[in-house]
Amino acid sequence: MIASTFAGDAPALIPLPQKMECREGVFQLQAKTRILTDVPANDTGQYLAERLGKATGYDLKVGRSTKAQPTKGAILLTTKNAKPELGAEGYELTVAPDSVVVRASKTAGLFYGVQSLLELLPPEVFAAKPVAGVDWKIPCVQIEDQPRFKWRGFMLDVARHFFTKDEVKQLLDVLVLHKINTLHLHLTDDQGWRIEIKKYPRLTEVGAWREEAGFGLDPKLSTAYGPDGKYGGYYTQDDIRELVAYARGKHITIVPEIEMPGHSCAALAAYPELSCSGGPYTPNTKGGVFAGVYCAGKDETFEFLQNVLAEVRQLFPGQYIHIGGDEVPKDNWKKCPWCQARIKAEGLKNEHELQSYFIRRIEKFINAQGRNLIGWSEIREGGLAQNAVVMDWIGGAVEAASAGHDVIMSPTKFCYLDYYQSTNHATEPKAIGNYLPLSKVYSFEPLPETLDPQNKPHILGGQGNLWTEYVPNFKHAQFMAFPRMCALAEVTWSPQASRNWEDFTRRLQTQFQRFDQLGVNYRKGTPERIGE
Ligand code: ACM
Ligand code: ZN
To answer: Distance of alpha carbon 150 from its chain centroid, rounded?
Structure first.
């Protein structure tokens, strides 16, 4: 086994496998090729047959095999003789002239082995309909692979722009190609509440709609206007169950985010009594408004949020619930008699400690429900809740990990996919600002240099975040996400030592051909231009 070093026409896998040896010859996929699986590999075998069938038109048969050894003329998917040291997501893939074997101890690994196998085929394998005249050959390779990090995430802000259930499914189809295993949905914010909560129907009746797209956007660009001319939308609980199941079939966990205590205008428009001031916005002395924040003094706030979270927990089976916690304006709390009474009763020093009280109280509830809380960097304000996971966007990763907390790295500088992709704004669609070219994402190192080696296991991985204030439709979202998520996928999956910009941009040209087949929009550019 040799480490991955490629000649010019070596296979164009993204993310790059941990170890890959290119060998002589090819395996010819034919109509008579059989797919054989043991019992645990059955679903993955069906997935492969369906995927290959669409593009080739072959009606590939999936059969049962208890054998561990390669079988002539067959693609064998098996858990037999798998190396446990490759973990739940690792796999081996052996392509020989007369056989293919994907071997992994768990179904996630089998699934990722199949993704690599698909990427060894011509890009037309991602076509939705049979493509004539393609030579369906697979180059012979020996791959041994496993991810560097266990959290390989993408966040979609469905609160600022509502993406339909089908759009989210299309997104999942592309993420899977990159071996991304987490989709974080930012479900609530000032501009919209996107998840049906049975106990509080006004959250979606009122909170899911607004009059304007906002942010200076041309409403005509937006795809989220309803028949009554209002902008928004939401997922019913059935929609959520469908999305969660769809994602699970692709080994992706959907992590829900319910924002609190700030970024809550949509909820407070529906239930204004949960704010300090009786409404989502409060006039301030400068004639402006403060963004909505739940009142931390009223017990009704916690009762409401716990009821919401209890329904959310029922819908999302994953280990984590994200509660936001970022950018909480404290001005309302300073003036609020209920909040001040809480500070006094709990012996808190100030509003920062009130934020901490809020997070801890919610965390206790989430833990009692058998789940772990995730929050943005600011949940560290006034003391970090006990076993909370920090999603670092503005710092604090080293401090949090050193104190024994798990951390997900999504620093703005490397992971904010709402930033411009070029310094020439005239040629780019309007974005929130800043500059995050593909090359910068590719240079991201999730492990903070100053972190004590013994605490490095607390860094779970990395995540790209797509905020959508300036993203009014799905095509635009894809343009912002790809190819920057291709880079982030490689950063979070592949060994650090294998990072090679020239080779990555070479492989990216093939990824673009796959995107063309899948109908995925992306920011095009030559390798020379792409990093500008
Ligand atoms: C954030 O970008 N406010 C987490
Ligand atoms: Zn209050």
So the answer is: 12
